Amino acid sequence: MDLIQAMEQRHSVRQYLDKPIEGETLESLIKIIDECNAESGLHIQLVKDEPKAFDSRMAHYGNFKGVRNYIAMVGKKSGDLDEKCGYYGEKIVLAAQMLGLNTCWVALTYKKIPGVFKVDNGEKLAIVIAIGYGANQGSEHKSKNIADLSNVSDSSPEWFKKGVKAAMNAPTATNQQKFKLNSDGNKVTAKAGLSFYSKLDLGIVKYHFEIGAGRENFEWA
Questions:
Q1: What was the pLDDT predicted at 141?
Q2: 160 — phi, psi (to 5°)?
Q3: Scanning 54, 62, 177, 188, which has its CA 20 to 30 A from the CA of 135?
Q4: Residue 101: in which H helix or E strand, if any?
């Protein structure tokens, strides 16, 4: 499985099997988290075998079941924290898919359990990502029309079309897809709309776009 296949096959999963993440799969997951932290300066942490965060009324309302592992997306407070967490969180999510794991971005329907991950002075928890072996593979989300999300036209370069197509597969909060991608030559702008978690969503979208378009073909404007 490559990253394009991972994007196409990955869907949000809320029910998980009672199967631990261990061995080479765990080692590979920790490695990608460490790499993302080193590259981004974030303080991303894997929480293992901790069932309490998703054993609450809110989690049950969100239809979560069997979640014992999750990733805490933590970083220094800044204007770009949410976007950075979206970008690097999705990098981990797609790597996890390639490892045979399933995931779900979770904004509100979990409970913070003291002491299971660190939030240092000047940092904040942006969001968490449930992770494990899914009881199912989730289902495909509907997408807005490509014209609503970009300025793609018949004359657009093929890399831009592929990038937008990849971005359309990006998970966004409540499937809102509040983003717009525009190209001008090899310059691409990505803008977030006004809605909850739209800046975090933008980071996810930008990572997807880069994979589809090929980072060598364009520059972010």
A1: 84
A2: -70, -40
A3: 177
A4: none
